Amino acid sequence: MSQAHIFLIDDIKPIQRGGGVVTTPLATHFSAPEAKFTTGISVYPVGKGAPLHVHNCDEQVTLLEGVGEVEIDGEITPLKQYDSTYIPGNRVHAFRNKGDVPMKILWIYASMKVTRTFEGSDEEVEHLSAKDMMAKD
After folding, report:
1. pTM, whole model, 2 decimals?
2. How far apart are CA 91 and CA 77, in angstroms?
3. Which Gene3D superfamilies match (predicted)?
4. Residue 25's beta-bridge partner residues?
5. Is residue 51 part of a domain?
6. For a disulfide at 42, which of 23, 62, 102, 114, Cβ 3.0-4.6 Å?
7. How many CB atoms lie within 10 A of CB 86?
8. Angstrom distance (rounded) from CA 21 to CA 41
9. Residue 5 domain flag
10. Residue 59 to residues 1, 47, 54, 111: CA-CA distances in angstroms?
């Protein structure tokens, strides 16, 4: 029987991702090794967003706070609170804060071994590793 886990937000150390982007990992291969997915919350400052990239697995994102946009394969769609996306693996995409307050998203990946490849790069990097930065400071 798999072990249940409770992720208390005050007990989790946030990860600085560059450009003021902060990520709080929830279910990951470190915190819940038997889980079949990876989850977390990222906060993007005003005017910031992720570079275009692909993942090795499917991703679902829900915008929790703020307003933003998602670009998927060159098509941009505005997002407001609680709007959600499903993006199959290996599809070029990015989320951007288009509002005047921080944008907070909840992300869920359909794998415990998540990678990211930034557009224009052939290097596949481990999700949330030191090379998986949203911007250079």
Report:
1. 0.94
2. 15
3. Jelly Rolls
4. 40
5. yes
6. 23
7. 11
8. 11
9. no
10. 26, 23, 10, 9
Tens digits of residue pLDDT in 14-29: 999 999 999 999 999 8
Only one residue has tokens 């450009």, namely: 19
Please enumerate, as own/partner, the contacts of 29-37 that have beta carbons within 8 Å and a separation of 24 or more: 29/112, 29/113, 31/5, 31/7, 32/3, 32/5, 33/112, 34/2, 34/3, 35/5, 35/112, 36/110, 36/111, 36/112, 37/108, 37/109, 37/110, 37/111, 37/112
Say if 9 falls within a structural domain.
Answer: no
Which residues face 26 on adjacent strands?
none
121 contacts 92 by C-beta, under 8 angstroms: no
Rounded Cα–Cα distance for residues 14 and 34 (Å): 22
**Residue located via tokens 């946030």:** 14
Domain CATH code at residue 105 = 2.60.120.10
In a domain, 83, yes or no: yes
What single letter denotes the amino acid at residue 113? K
Domain span including residue 67: 14-118
At 136, is the pLDDT very low, low, confident or very high (cuts 50, 70, 90)? low
3 state SS of 56: coil
